[in-house]
Amino acid sequence: MGFVTVQWSIEDRTEADQCKTYGAQAVELLLISTKNNHVTRQVVPCERFDTSVQVIADDYVGTITLLDDNGKAVSEPLPVGPFEVSGEEQATRRVSFPAADQQRERGTHRDRGTQRGRESQRDRDRQRR
Questions:
Q1: Residue 105 — very low, low, confident or very high, per pLDDT cuts 50/70/90?
Q2: How confident is residue 122, by pLDDT bands cut at 50, 70 and 90?
Q3: Is the CB of residue 101 less than 8 Å from the CB of residue 12?
Q4: Over 50: is that where the pLDDT of 53 sits?
Q5: Residues in CB range of 5: below 8 A, 6 or more apart
Q6: Alpha-carbon distance 79 to 77, whole Å?
């Protein structure tokens, strides 16, 4: 068994106000063992800005996502890894989320693209009639 510590920041800062700006109450950490695809999930308060998880010694990949008070993602999942956890030492990973307004802009563009896709499909359906 070994430990992995994941530290996160928002715009390279670790103040509770950063979480509030995002509307984030918690962070979801998913770690996936590359050997057997075992998933370890941990949810902790956003304001902690770090968490440690005991896992079996193996190679890992994973993601970290900011969540609102309903458990809904308010950020894109960011990659954590790949990295190795051994029984003798602790692995530490650091992740920094971009500014909240950058996340909203990405979401807005994605939503606009989805909306355009729906509108295009409706136009094609009308033309067939």
A1: low
A2: very low
A3: no
A4: yes
A5: 50, 51, 52, 53, 90, 91, 92, 93
A6: 7
What is the number of residues in the chain?
129
List CB contacts of 96: < 8 A, sequence separation 6 or more.
8, 9, 10, 11, 12
**Position 118, amino acid:** R
* 3 state DSSP class of 6: strand
pLDDT at 103 over 90: no
The string over 44-63, giving b where at least 16 C-beta atoms fall within 10 Å of a residue's C-beta and e elsewhere, is bebbebebebebeebebebb
| Main-chain dihedrals φ then ψ at residue 117, nearest 5 degrees | -60, -40
The model's confidence at residue 101, banded by pLDDT at 50, 70 and 90, is confident
Q: Helix/strand/coil (H, E, C) string of 21-54?
A: HHCCCEEEEEEEECCCCCEEEEEEEHHHCEEEEE
